[in-house]
Amino acid sequence: MNKQKLIAGTKGYLTITAAVVLMDIGTYFFKFPNHFSFGGVSGLSVVLSEVQTGLSASQVNLIINMLLLVIGFAILGRDFGMKTAYVTVVSSVLLNIFEAICPMEETLTDQSMLEMIFAIMLAAASSALLFYEEASGGGTDIIAMIVKKYSTMNISTALMVVDAVIVAVSFLVFDMETGLFSICGLVAKTLFIDGALERLKLCKYVTVVCNEPEPICDYIRDALHRGATLYQAEGLYSHQHKTVILCALDRKQAVLLQRYIHRVEDTAFLIITKSSEIIGKGFYEGT
């Protein structure tokens, strides 16, 4: 069990690290140079760095993230706080490394719309991965998690509400074009996060009607490391006694089970249903 927890924890932090890299690439190479501020501390950093603070966007990003991290620890708990602390430190260090080795004096291209698309896609994919791992990118993500905890909003809606304030400020600091780009970016980012989270949480609910349940149950338990529920049933036409197996699996496991059943009992009746979310041990354990 400890080994499984270690493997799961390692995979979780590798996923979080990959999400941080995506987030910082989108932030530094696309968001900062274009003054896009469709939410997040990185967006707020863009706004504040333009005001006479004497600090770069990366430095402002680090300061605000550290302040909000303390709030996250206090309200959302130690496990969330540790993951978010890891994200905050790695992200801020990586941004400063980018700033040192690859200064951005101008945008990568002269195509603002193209760069906004990449900024949105990278940021949204990163946020979805972090939320799935019960972590966050720090900053306004922490505020959104707090709003979600004490309201009925889902995480993407809560994040949009929080980030809308920053987008509104961008109209005052930058020009109308930048503000309108930021609004489009915020809406697109919210929709992208919703879609990505639903895809990540997608599982399969499998119903098997068979004559010989033992081999199938052994495979589910020993090879797939899942549980199942069994009950006895009777066929409507044949009146033969059947065993019904109910099992929740991830997408890869559902394919493996389907192949195995086809080999051992090709007369079994198999129903595979998509489930947008399964909450419980071995699956998504968020609230």
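(ticket continues) Second input and output from the same batch:
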Amino acid sequence: MRQRKNYAAIDNFRLVAALLIVAIHTAPLASFSETADFLVTYCFGRVGVPFFLMVSGFFVLAPYQRQMQPARRKLSHRQSAGDAAGIFSGSIGRFLKKTTLLYVISTLLYLPLKIYSHNISDSVGGWLKEIFFDGTFYHLWYLPAVILGCLLIMGLLYFCSPLAVSVIVFVLYVLGVLGDSYYNLISQVPFLKLVYEGLFTVSSYTRNGIFFAPLFLWMGVLLANGKVRISKKTAGIGLFISLAGMLAEGFMSFQFQWQKHNSMYFLLIPVMFFLFELLLSMDCRGVEIARDLSMYVYILHPLCIVLVRGAADVLKMKESLVEQSLIHYLAVALLSVLLSLAVVGAKMIYQRFVMERK
């Protein structure tokens, strides 16, 4: 693991990333400029999800890789696979169980909204598609993506060298980008269109745990366990240049109407590398509750969108609270943070109560 005194900048950016995800679902600049909103929200804002994936790779999968290498050497000599099973039951196992539980709870939380909006799948295949790829509510796709992505990386580490893993996840990402920001371009090739149409019967988008998540999870592993180190200045310059390039890539694919979706860009890879390196080079004070707060903001913000819209109807303030996109975003973000603070506070009180009872 990369040796540092703390990872405060990483923890603090979790909340920024969560608020960027809120922006993606509220389009804060849409009232002013469609182009500006696209560049800020659907280009720059796309760093939020890869950031969380890299955090999981850095803190969860990187220790797994370090433990897995000796196990692979033993297994290659036909010794027992018990070492690998033991690793799975450790921190990575706890992470997967926690994420799965969070996914189940979140699904139950949003089930009434799905029923109310008549958005319930009427087939087993539809439910399986939602559970494993699309998410059981529109923002929950990340949870099965990170679970499947982790399982895929674990499987690759079991059978492949780090170099082979890097090649495989990069190829998968390229295939994902072509089915995302470049789909309407590559679908002009009949064979490719047929392949992707088949894929989209299983997963509505390529932003899932097979094409999208593995690369950024693996980047987190490499940044934790690798030997690449760059200065804060170099990381800042690299981030500026790559971000400018990604905005240009996004604008081009948007203007030419190549996009089926806009979650994946080629230049998102260097953007995330330099962003994470920049955060790792920073020394600052951390917000103690940033980890939990960011998670609850992510989970609860669609509920807050519904609450803000409902309040706007009751107060007859729809024009200002909903139709004015920036105010709408700020209202949803503020309510999401306040509600999440309440959940964090309740959790801390419960934990203190449990400790006192022991």
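Agent notes: The longest helix spans residues 325-357. The mean pLDDT is 92. Closing as not reproducible unless the customer responds.
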